[in-house]
Fold this sequence. Notes:
The protein is of the alpha+beta class. About 15% of the residues lie in helices and about 35% in strands.
Amino acid sequence: MGLALAVWLAAVAVGGVPTPRPALTPDPPLVSPPKRGGIRGKLGPGSVVSRLYAVGRASGSIYSPAEFDARTGEFAFRDLPGDAAYDLGLVLKDGRVIEGIDLRFVDARLLRLAALRRRQLGLPPEREEDFVKEDARDLLAFVRDLKDFMEVRRVLFLRGHGKRATMLVELMRTREFYAAKGDMIWRVELWYFVNQFGGWERVPNQERVLRRERLKPDAWRTIDISYYPRLSVYVSPEGEADPVDFEIPNETDPSRGRPAGAKPELDTTPHLLGLDEPTSRPTADE
Length: 286
């Protein structure tokens, strides 16, 4: 409650004759509403693509391209809401699926707005922290040692954001698969972590389920999907986005997803991104 309003209410309470009630005016918006924008790029070779789409993971909305030339591989999406990330998806004629993956932290937009507000109020910025190999080791151990319904857990990507981290993990329930009794469960999820007072904790109720399947083993063996962070495109509040230039691989990289016909347990090395020290998985290889 403002001081002027408090004085006015006090005058009313003691029976005095108050001055006219002060006008209440809302604070101006922190930022202007985002503009709509688009995504342009080129896929090579475009002739192997059966379908192209874009997914807004936060909203679940799926968008079709306004243009796609299979001969040149050039494409364009238009009229997309700004200040949002979109994961491009490719269904290939040989049955493979390739998707972008947004490895930003789940509250990336809110964190950006909070930082802007702190600057406007003259407050110091949030203290920055490094994300180092020991942090990655602890998070990978968390998944390895986890005891729950799922029997197979495999980290595909781990992206550090200082004291925050995003993980893309594959999960499977395989007991029925080996017993040949029925369905198996296969999931791909994004998990989010925060370092609280020197220890990593998973953010509760914030996982983002990308794939959730309950199916027969024979059907599960046909799944062929891989994920590439560079196919995730951010449309800025001004409606602008970096162009995409992506060369479609000839086969599925198991470290990025699941090739058709592969056994449930795959021994792959996670892609570690965002380290504040040298890594064998450079950002250029995203």
